[in-house]
Design a protein that fits this description.
Its EC number is 5.4.99.25. The protein is α+β, with helices and mostly antiparallel strands. Helices cover about 25% and strands about 35% of the residues.
Length: about 240
């Protein structure tokens, strides 16, 4: 592959990831477009999720750990009354329950109980590795192992709209938070089960989806237009990180 890794061609791209492809697929498409090898991302989105994906170009890849550590904001939708093995709509349904006559106050009260510092157990269908093996590979073989809970923080969790069995919500959270697990746990709290049906990342710290470019539009840009979209690293991270 030809390369174009020059000091003049580096920075941060804000891409609006479409549904149905992996974050790595987005990286590959940016690499092909720019004819560069040195491209990465700062925070994975599941294939079924859409929204803000921070793409790092050239030497900007060096600040990936800092950018991944930033808080994130999402809008999501969960369906009450059904649980799945993956905690989202991609998985197999494992149980169904009647959805009780919940009021908006009932939903809001349940959501409020998930605010603040807490420990969350990663789902089996995740890329988290145990002894070097991604959990999802074990899950696909029907295996379930004990997972160590990890510390997370939910800054804000609010209901946007309720149309049972669907609940649309907004969440601001720390890195490492699995929104699929959050939806599953809320369903358990309500006593009827739930799974995530839709997820869109709206922001990562001060990087906002409104400033992003759709992947398909990016692929039609000229190199000059791409360079105009690049955010210089020094504008994106504190000086002590560089």
């Amino acid at each position: 592959m030809a390369t174009n890794d020059s000091p003049n061609f580096e920075g941060i791209l804000l891409i609006d990831k479409p549904q149905g492809i992996t974050s790595h697929d987005v990286v590959d498409r940016v690499r092909r477009k720019l004819k560069m090898k040195k491209v990465g991302h700062a925070g994975t989105l599941d294939p079924n999720a859409t929204g803000l994906l921070i793409i790092l170009v050239g030497r900007a890849t060096k600040v990936s750990q800092y950018l991944m550590s930033l808080d994130k904001e999402y809008q999501g939708e969960m369906k009450l009354g059904e649980t799945t093995d993956s905690y989202d709509c991609e998985g197999e349904i494992t149980a169904t329950h009647d959805v009780p006559e919940l009021s908006e106050d009932d939903i809001k009260k349940a959501l409020s109980e998930f605010s603040g510092d807490q420990y969350q157990t990663p789902p089996m269908f995740s890329a988290k590795k145990v002894d070097g093996v991604p959990l999802y590979k074990l899950a696909r073989k029907g295996k379930e192992i004990e997972r160590e809970p990890r510390f997370i923080r939910i800054n804000e969790l609010t209901m946007v709209e309720m149309n049972l069995p669907l609940v649309h919500f907004y969440v601001s959270c720390s890195k490492g938070t699995y929104i699929r697990t959050l939806a599953h746990d809320i369903g358990q709290k309500l006593g009827c089960g739930a799974h995530l049906t839709d997820l869109r990342r709206m922001a990562t710290d001060r990087f906002d989806i409104d400033d992003s470019v759709r992947l398909e539009d990016f692929e039609e840009m000229s190199v000059t237009e791409v360079r105009r979209c690049l955010i210089p690293v020094y504008r994106a991270v504190p000086s002590h990180v560089l």
